[in-house]
Amino acid sequence: MADAIFEEPRLAEIYDELDPDRSDLDAYSAMAGEFGAESVLDVGCGTGTLACLLAGRGLEVIAVDPAAACLEVARRKPGAGDVRWVHGDVTDLPPLQVAPRRCAVRPRPAERLRVHGAKRPPA
Question: Where are the alpha helices (DSSP H) in 19-101?
């Protein structure tokens, strides 16, 4: 369940303006590169800034947030069409399936997190 304040469309519309310097996201992008991740699950994605950034760098991104108002803002951002948006929390995701060579939780270049039922990439 989202905090009521994040369900407020007026706040969602100006949320990014309240924190315009998102250089903090560079660390997360670097981590994805270090792990050799091909896909990312962004839990609590908010207005989708990180999700769109990573998708723009060629990663497959699934972004989850319980605040519908924030997701509406996220879906209008450049690159949002390359992100799979999920309204809810992690309990609303299909069962996660970790492929042995593709899991982004270990620092091995070919590993990746897979979502059950998602399109399988070439090995």
Answer: 25-35, 49-56, 68-74
Kindly tell me if the per-residue pLDDT of 105 is higher than 90.
Answer: no
Domain count, the chain: 1
Please indicate, yes or no, if residue 121 is contained in any of the structural domains: no
Q: What is the pTM of this model?
A: 0.74
Helix (H) or strand (E) holding 104: none
CATH of the domain at 39: 3.40.50.150
Q: Residue 13: which domain range?
A: 4-115
> Is there a domain that residue 122 lies in?
no
CA distance 123 to 114: 13
What are the tens digits of pLDDT across the range 24-56? 999 999 999 998 898 999 999 999 999 999 999
Model confidence at 4, pLDDT cuts 50, 70, 90, reads: confident
Query: Is residue 50 situated within a structural domain?
Result: yes
Q: Give the Å distances, CA to CA, from 106 to 32, 46, 100.
A: 11, 25, 10
Collapsed DSSP state (helix, strand, coil) of residue 50: helix
Among candidate residues 93, 114, 117, the one with its CA nearest the CA of residue 105: 114
